[in-house]
Amino acid sequence: MKVQLFIPCFVDQLYPEVGMNMVKVLEKVGCHVSYNPNQTCCGQPAYNAGYIKEAKAVSEKFIHDFSGDEYIVSPSGSCIGYVRGCFEEIFDNTSSHNEAKAVTKRSFEFTEFLVDILKIENVGAQLNAVATYHDSCGALRECGIKSGPRKLLANVKGLELREMKECETCCGFGGTFAVKYEPISIGMSQTKVSSALEVGADYIISTDVSCLMHLDGYIRHEKLNIKTAHIADVLSMGW
């Protein structure tokens, strides 16, 4: 199966290994992955900050960069949530409306694509550790992703997955929210990390590096004995 790779800004600039590990997994399960080097942002940061006109220009470029009929796969529930939830609204009654609608139907978050499209729940990964899963707001609330990541992690050999009581609570990042409301943001990250520590987790795993970056910042500042990991990194381990 042919897929187009969409690499979000955070992955491109800060966590490139997440993108490479996602490709590693996709190729292992039989996908032919292509990457358009002209791609940039999906437009979400500008849209969330209220710059709708600027977001529309960036999103229109996204539509052109991902022309064709292949699936679009990304290691970010947040970005895919924006594409699905906002493109039709932004391009309503415009010449790009049909193209925008088609792109939304072809766009999938990485774990969602594995479980729902490819029907794969075991990629042969191995990690000897205890982990807990954090439901990112983008993946859970915008894409409806809940069970898929857990099914994949349940099949990682040696990994014990324990649910924390605050698994669906926001980590506190929220893009510009973390900048505008820093004390509240830090408090939310504290709640999340404390919940993970309570179940004895070695790792907090999620689908979004923005959440993990925020949580890792708090962990490092407090010198806590726990790590963060994107699910693509975990699924590429132990082959």
| Intertermini distance | 22 Å
Main beta sheet strand tally, sense and closure? 4 strands, parallel
Shape: globular
Mean pLDDT: 96
Number of helices: 13
Specify Rg, calculated over alpha carbons: 17 Å
Poorly predicted regions = none
Helix vs. strand class: alpha/beta
**What sequence of helices (H) and strands (E) makes up the elements?**
EHHEHHEHHEHEHHEHHEHEH
Key traits:
239 residues; alpha/beta; Rossmann fold; 2 domains; four-stranded parallel β-sheet; 13 helices
TL;DR?
By secondary structure, this protein is α/β, with parallel strands linked by helices. It has helices spanning 9-13, 16-28, 44-48, 52-65, 77-90, 97-106, 110-117, 137-143, 147-154, 177-180, 182-198, 209-222, 231-235, and strands spanning 2-5, 32-34, 71-74, 107-109, 126-133, 157-161, 203-206, 227-230. It folds into two domains: 2-116, no CATH class; 125-235, Rossmann fold (3-Layer(aba) Sandwich).
Describe this structure in words.
- The chain is α/β, with parallel strands linked by helices and 239 residues long.
- The chain has two domains: 2-116, no CATH class; 125-235, Rossmann fold, CATH 3.40.50.
- 52% of the residues lie in helices and 15% in strands.
- It has 13 helices and eight strands.
- Helix 5 packs antiparallel against helix 6, helix 5 (77-90) packs across helix 8 and helix 7 crosses helix 9.
- The chain is globular.
- The relative contact order is 0.15.
